[in-house]
Amino acid sequence: MLKMIGQSKSTTLLFVTLLMVIGLQLTLHAGTSQFLFDMDGIRDPGSLMVKFQDTRAPVSQLIVSQLSEDGQELLVGYDGISDPSPKLQEALLANLNRLLQAGSLYDAQVFADIELSEQTQALIAQNPKSGEALVRLNRSLLSDAYPYELASLSEQKKVEDKGLEACRENLRRIKLALEKYRISNPNTDPKWLSELSPEYLEEKVLLCPADATAGVPGVLTEGASDPTLPCSYIYEMRPSLKMDQDILLMQEGDMLPIVRCEHHLLNLSIGGKLYRNGPQRSIYTSNKTGFSLLDDFMRGLRAQHGEAFLKTQEGKQKLKQATEELIIKQFVPIMLSAFEKKVYTQIEAQLGKNILKSSIAVDILKQATVQLGDQIREQLQSELEARLGTEFLEAAEGQDILKQLSAQIDGFSLDGR
Fold first, then answer.
1. Which residue(s) pair with 234 in the sheet?
2. CA–CA separation, 269 vs 58, rounded Å?
3. What span, in angstroms and rounded, lies between the C-alpha atoms of 275 and 260?
4. Distance (Å, whole) CA 316 – CA 314
């Protein structure tokens, strides 16, 4: 009898212990589940997928490397512009929540260019290894990295972006219109989006539903307003930016923005992908380079001092300094590097990958250097004249700029890799 009572007590103790363990696990799960993503927490799945596809961004590279095999396959198959299928969204949600619990996503180098919130920095300082704190840290890191795609911990409900879906549809139609235009006009982009209407596009598609001004010229940045039709969208291939964009296209490929909506911070890339602005790569927020930055600088001088200031000695000196910094030191080296890469790629494509190692390549590259150098010099001088004016280029400051430009181009050489 005593033996049976002892066995009963042991069984009861074991059962109580088991309940305590189960209860603890349930408590831990309840404590972390509230910080996991749900469908409302993924604000813009399409944009998020596009950015995950662009693994040149360190944050995206880190995340994609940890996705499941099925998740990576679905990611590769996404076209970048349609609404992600329910299956794709479910897979995305499952992968994100698995990552939140798997281990810390924080890497100082990966997140170096991301502006982290005070909450995220405080969680990083705690250096959590598991449980609620780890999930909160990873959720905060992802929300900071993808602020328009993923809801932050402080957002209690899904944020609705007024007119976003209608704007997406407009950009899809603009994409199709651009494709039809290029078929009719091979190797050519329209100078303005208004050239697409009425043959390829209805005029109303050029108006974002969130644009209260209905595309009134001058509301967007100076020089970006379509000269023919009311237009809410900024067209990045307009004449004043064409040279900058041609250079960027060599570097960015199909991710280069061609149309931007400043109301929704939504971009249509030249490859037909839609994504929101964000901190992961500079091109997601701005794709301004040399000459467009010089335009901005000159616009600022005019606004502050007036047009006449640009012809004074002080104004000329400021223009010279800005041109040296933005064009000579920054833009020209990037341009030469991009053209060099393009030449090598074309030679390899036509003559084979090993041709650059042969003696034949020496003569080819010498001829290409001369021809390319003359073309670049002529194009850059034309761009400088269009912005700075003939009078400035004939002055001492302008002549010095042209000498520096010639020295850079004369030093340019295609001599193999």
1. 260
2. 20
3. 10
4. 6
Q: What is the 3-state secondary structure (H, E, C) of 115-127?
A: CCCHHHHHHHHHC
pLDDT in tens, 240-275: 887 778 777 777 888 999 999 999 999 999 999 999
Evaluate the CA torsion angle 362, 367, 369, 372 in order and state its sign: negative
Dihedral sign, Cα of residue 48, residue 50, residue 51, residue 52: positive
Whether the model clears a pTM of 0.90, i.e. scores above it, the answer is no
For residue 229, CA distances in Å to 203, 213, 374 come to: 8, 13, 38
Quick check: 255 and 269 in contact, CB under 8 A?
A: yes
> Between the CA of residue 349 and those of 182, 310, 344, what are the distances in Å?
24, 47, 9
Q: What is the pLDDT of residues 318-340, one digit of tens each?
A: 999 999 998 998 888 888 887 77
Structure tokens, 296 = 């901005």
* Residue 27: band (very low, low, confident or very high) from pLDDT cuts 50, 70, 90: very low
With a pLDDT cut of 90, the percent of the chain lying above it is 48
Kindly state the tokens that stand for 373.
């150098």
Give the other-Cβ count within 10 Å of 405's Cβ. 20
Sign of the CA dihedral 275, 99, 56, 353?
A: negative
Euclidean distance between CA atoms 70 and 16, whole angstroms: 41
What span, in angstroms and rounded, lies between the C-alpha atoms of 81 and 193?
A: 19
What's the half-sphere exposure (Cβ side, CA atoms, 13 Å) at 131?
Answer: 12
Is the CB of residue 406 less than 8 Å from the CB of residue 414? no
Query: 131 near 31, Cβ under 8 Å?
Result: yes
Comparing CA positions, the residue from 232, 214, 106 lying closest to residue 174 is 232
pLDDT value at position 309? Answer: 92
What pLDDT is recorded for position 358? 64
Answer for the pair 119, 24: CB distance below 8 angstroms, yes or no: no
Mind giving me the DSSP string for 52-89? HH-TTSHHHHHHHHTS-HHHHHHHHH--SSSPPPHHHH
CA distance 415 to 363: 9
**CA–CA separation, 294 vs 379, rounded Å?**
16
Structure tokens at 315: 């104004």
Q: Report how far residue 32's alpha carbon sits from residue 25's, in angstroms, rounded to the nearest whole number.
A: 11
Task: Please check whether residue 401 is in contact with residue 328, taking contact to mean a CB–CB distance below 8 angstroms.
Answer: yes
Q: 274 by DSSP, 3-state: which?
A: strand
Residues, the chain, total? 417
Question: What does the pLDDT read at residue 250?
Answer: 75
Higher pLDDT, residue 57 or 370: 57
